[in-house]
Amino acid sequence: MPVSFIVLAAGMGTRMNSDLPKVLHKVAAAPLLHHALTAARSLDPARIVVVTGHGAAEVEAAAKGFDEACECVLQDPQLGTAHAVSMAAPLLEKMSGDVIVLYGDTPFIRPETLEAILHARARHSVVVLGFQARDPGRYGRLISQGESLEKIVEYKDATDEERAVTLCNSGVMCASAELMFDLLTRVENTNAAGEYYLTDLPQLARAQGLSAGVVICDEAETLGINTRRELAAAEAAFQARARLEALENGVTLTAPETVFFALDTHIGRDAIIGPNVLFGLGVTIESAAEVKGFCHLEGCHISRGAQVGPFARLRLGAELAEDVHVGNFVEIKNAILDEGVKVGHLTYLGDADIGEFSNIGAGTVTCNYDGVMKHRTRIGKRAFIGSSTMLVAPVSVGNDALTASGSVITEDVPAEAVALARAKQVNKPGLATKLMARLKTIKAAKGKA
Ligand code: UD1
Ligand code: CA
């Protein structure tokens, strides 16, 4: 049976004290919304509908940026969680299969938990995800017996006896699309907050003789972000888990507590990551590659056996083939380095193709930007680029060619040629000594004045 998701992301997030919509604040380099969408997408859903409200245009752009197939509906005004879910009715009420409600500000729900919810649907018409709260605070309380759920009571509406219950509502809920949207039409706002509560659904289902059930997950999974403090705590929790996962997957981390992963970082077995390495989105590192300390990586691919750093910066579109060496203070952007290329020191390669086994000397710069447009530099196989070569793109250097140190290369270099593009050296015998003597005389004269 197909499953669809509704992700609520309309809320203002007042307590973030921010101009940015809450769900666009980042954990592990990705908007909170992307974390929820990643969990949803792992179940290969038929549809994903994001309910937007505050900052709708930006939230929609982020949803589409994650996956073009995400659909967005606007909730304005925001009259409660049931009202929010009902905004998706025009898109989903005729769908066969189940609908799961998730939250854009709740990033850590695991795919396994979503699977468990779907399995529990075999026994219950409505399934709610609950957790044992260390501090139940103002969460909705699950009034249940074993797996069977009688009702959810919101804190504001709960009796003292109900408030003593520590089994709490995560907010995540599942039912068939047909039942969910039917029950939603029956929800009223006669409660302490005057809102349409999604939490009324289990009781409404039971009133029709249907059953409601609870699936329990760890509290850490249902962590919702409401404040900057919670955002920082969520970042720390994510990183702690990601580091352990990397270690368990056979990655060596010299100083795990100093490495920061992104939501989608992939690292192969037997890779080695040194201290103080920061991952942005879109990084893949293959097996047995090494990233030494203090590297910043994003949007790049590092192949088997490659070595990077220390102090290297790889940006979007940096493609390193097997056994490439990238050393210290090298920046690479939108460039393909074929097998065995060496770029040892102090170099910028942007918008470039470097053929296999070429050597790029220290201080080389691909001058890729003319102030208006970007241009490409193409270097063939086994080329030797002398130290401090400026490659003024668009320009190419042929196979087995060489550029002399300090050259400013503005024209294509044929294969096997040497390109010399610098002023010819002139030596003036004895002039250094004469110059020094003159300078010393001038200085002495000034001292007397
Ligand atoms: C909700 C649950 C509560 C649960 C808690 C878990 C209800 C009525 N209560 O309470 O049982 O313990 O979550 O965190 O569902 N939203 C919209 N549109 C709206 C209202 C809310 O999109 O009109 C979104 C918010 O952006 C937020 C989420 O739904 O991300 C939860 O809404 P919120 O008002 O914060 O509900 P809680 O009081 O936290
Ligand atoms: Ca909340």
What would your notes on this structure say?
With 449 residues, the protein is α/β, with parallel strands linked by helices. The chain has two domains: 3-222, Spore Coat Polysaccharide Biosynthesis Protein SpsA, Chain A (Alpha-Beta Complex); 228-419, 3 Solenoid (UDP N-Acetylglucosamine Acyltransferase, domain 1), CATH 2.160.10. It is built from ten helices and 33 strands. It binds uridine-diphosphate-N-acetylglucosamine and calcium ion (CA).
| Uncertain stretches | none
CATH superfamily of the largest domain: Spore Coat Polysaccharide Biosynthesis Protein SpsA, Chain A
Number of domains: 2
Share in helix: 10-25%
By CATH reckoning, the class of the largest domain would read: Alpha Beta
Q: Tell me the distance between the termini.
A: 97 Å
Query: How many distinct helices?
Result: 10
Shape: elongated
Major sheet description: 19 strands, parallel
Search tags:
449 residues; alpha/beta; Spore Coat Polysaccharide Biosynthesis Protein SpsA, Chain A; UDP N-Acetylglucosamine Acyltransferase, domain 1; 19-stranded parallel sheet; seven-stranded mixed sheet; 10 helices; binds uridine-diphosphate-N-acetylglucosamine; binds calcium ion
